[in-house]
């Protein structure tokens, strides 16, 4: 796991009050973390601030699992 992944997982852990150890790439924001759309918006805003990313509504609609989130962050970092 690289630094970027650790940082993203820590943001998710903080946002959803869940230990990092319990988070996997298959963890669903909605089903496993009981996230609603506002929770996801807040998470994306935190990632924008912490990681210097920009996301639009289409990006947020495609993020359903932690794996999706990590893929989005890695793609956004390489742009």
Please, could you describe this protein's structure?
- The protein has helices spanning 3-16, 37-51, 57-61, 66-77.
- The protein is an all-alpha fold.
Summarize the structure.
With 79 residues, the chain is an all-alpha fold.
Helix content: 55-70%
Low-pLDDT sequence parts: none
For the record, give the distance between the C-alpha atoms at the N and C termini, rounded to a whole number. Answer: 21 Å
Question: Taking all residues together, what is the mean pLDDT?
Answer: 89
- As a percent range, the share of strand residues is under 5%
- State the order of secondary-structure elements, H for helix, E for strand: HHHH
**Continuous helix count:** 4
Tell me, what's the shape?
globular
Taking all Cα atoms into account, the compactness measure Rg is 11 Å
Secondary structure class reads mainly alpha
Outline the secondary-structure elements.
Blueprint: H1 3-16, H2 37-51, H3 57-61, H4 66-77
Helix pairs in contact: 1-2, 1-4
